[in-house]
Amino acid sequence: MSRPTRDDRIPRAIEDGVGRMLAGLWWLTAPVLTPLGRALGWLGARVAPTLAALGALAAVDLLRWLRSPLTLAAAFIPPLGMTLFLVVLSLSVTRQPVALVVQGQGPQTARMRQVLASDDDAYHLTETDAADAQRMLERLEVAAVITLPADFDAATVRHAGTVGLTLNNIDIDFADDIRRSVDRSVARFHEPALNTEKQEGWDADDGPMSFSTYGVLINEHDLRTTNVDWLRYQIIPALVLLVLCVGLIGTALFCAEDRERRTARYLLLAPHPGWVLLGGRVLGGTAAALLALFPALVCCLWTHLIAPPPEHWGALLQLFLATACCAAGLGAILGTLVRGARTVALAATVLATYLFFLGGGFTTIAFLPAWLRAVSAWVPMRYAIDGLRQALFYPTLTGVKSDLLALFGTAAVTLVVGAVLVRRGDVER
Description:
Layout: H1 6-66, H2 69-93, E1 96-102, H3 107-118, E2 123-127, H4 130-138, E3 144-148, H5 152-157, E4 164-167, H6 172-190, H7 230-260, H8 264-268, H9 274-302, H10 313-337, H11 341-358, H12 370-376, H13 380-393, H14 400-423
Parallel strand pairs: 1-2, 1-3
Antiparallel strand pairs: 3-4
């Protein structure tokens, strides 16, 4: 046998050195790695079945949606009806149908007509003659008739010009809207500089303004660069109502059906804690609510009803997720406590309605009485609506973290309470 050369001994020395180094490293880390490996194995052996159980329960609930047309109707009819109501109301509230009768031909008449026609945020004008305008008013096709008389030019020279307003004042709210709009148009005719934009080169401390007839201008500072119309502002509560109805009503009805079919006792026999049984149901309700929300969200984006800033998308998705978890948790609690599918459906609908309106679904919380504002502070949907509006309509995310904390906190509380009820056997009593 030939003796190893120097070139052969070098690789062997390296191998021996690496082997000794690895052996020493193992000797040093074995006391730490061995318990850690055992802990990870123990954790994996227990987490994997729990995750599998959660996924199985959620998948079953999603499949049950396809086989439950009554549940689908109970969950989707309220938000669809609310959306249709908002669309119709936006057409009748934001712009009033008004007939315009122009009887003069002078330059001042033309100027007044232009002022009225340019205010398309307030009026939906139809220019016609006096007889046709009267017929439209009698048939309720218009809410008012604005008349520019034939002597309007001559009267304005004498500072005695008048604008005729025949108003169907059956509704004081709509009537006041038209009165304010006409007053604003007349003021703009008399003082073209009267507007709601900040006047360049003038501040309130600069003294009186010499260029205004009235001596007063509005020095407005907007929080946003663009205004949000009424429909875009109210579509957010409609999306929240969709998530609320699907998550709350659907989860509650499935819990009630399990009790009526006596399938809940088989869940209680499963080798899982109560929070896993309830968590699977909450997970299924959350997934169903988000799946129902997705096409509605795409439709709103396509029609430009919502246009969130790119940097706000993360907060927006977290808010929708938190709202869905909260709604599903409340539904699981309700379905656990109330017996009978019909009773649960009625109770879930009533609860969803109260949560929606007390959360500011149809008004602004700041405009409510003090005692009602105090009540709404305990309504989780208030934080969902406030957070979504902040993320969509404002440049910053002020208060969104608090809104997320309130929603996820409510979901956690419902999970704990539901787990206690399930483990006590309240599902079968």
